[in-house]
Amino acid sequence: MAGKGGAKNVIKGKLEDNNPSRKYQKFALIIGVTGIVGNSLAEILRSTTPPVARGMSTGLLVGHGHRGTPTTPSTTSSATSPTQNKPIQTFDPDRSHPCCATESENCDVNGKMFTNVLNVVIPNAPNLQHICLQTGRRHYMGSFKDGRSHDPPFYEDLPRLDSPKFYYTLEDILFKEVGKKEGLTWSVHRPGLIFGFSPYSMMNILLSLCVYATICKYEGQPLTFLGTKEGWNSYTDASDADLVAEQQIWAVVDPNARTSF
């Protein structure tokens, strides 16, 4: 595992030195910086000289950051205005979460937030180079209620399921908006369970399991699996947050990785 050190070397070799004749500062806008991958991205990008990260989310990471959720065009414009005259690689990790009663509502809410971001950033950042969209493994699976799913293993080119899914909505918005700006590239990243740490994220399964195991040990109780039979018997996979962040950086700096899933 290369981790932060490997990613830092990638940035030094390509992101900073790829075009030494350029006079402007490299810059990354992270929408969802408080998420697990967002936190890893910020830590990696802030370790470069000069730092190249700015984060936007409902919480604030130590360093460059901004509190705010892109629920309206005006709040989005205010949050992203300091980045508009710089070349930006826009990462979008851990930004979208299902939080509504139905998947159709999830599509509407998350779609509006993503549209607000792109409608502000793309027209006002003339040097914008690349957009990373992070969704997840549930791209290949139905909602928790309907149970439909492709059979594993999952491949990037599997067709979409015939059911609403806000991941599909986000991809469609990305393709539509990117197509309006010549030369702007994209990549979509679909990790499974993410192992990492962010003090701001509730979706942190590894930390939850560690706390549960610690309590069981302290109380002298067996570490019992609390999930379902289907969960116990199913196939699953996990992704390291630093490696997902490094993959997204790679998608920005390597032409062979752009415009791909």
UniProtKB/TrEMBL annotation:
Pfam families to which the protein is assigned, alphabetical: PRISE
Disordered: annotated span: 61-96
Domain PRISE-like Rossmann-fold stretches: 104-258
Domain of life (superkingdom): Eukaryota
InterPro entries: NAD(P)-bd_dom_sf (IPR036291), PRISE-like_Rossmann-fold (IPR055222)
Signal peptide per UniProt: none
Low complexity biased stretches: 69-83
GO MF annotation: an example: oxidoreductase activity, acting on the CH-CH group of donors
Gene3D superfamilies: NAD(P)-binding Rossmann-like Domain (3.40.50.720)
BP term (GO), one: lipid metabolic process
Coiled-coil regions listed: none
Protein's UniProt name: PRISE-like Rossmann-fold domain-containing protein
Upper lineage: Eukaryota, Viridiplantae, Streptophyta, Embryophyta, Tracheophyta
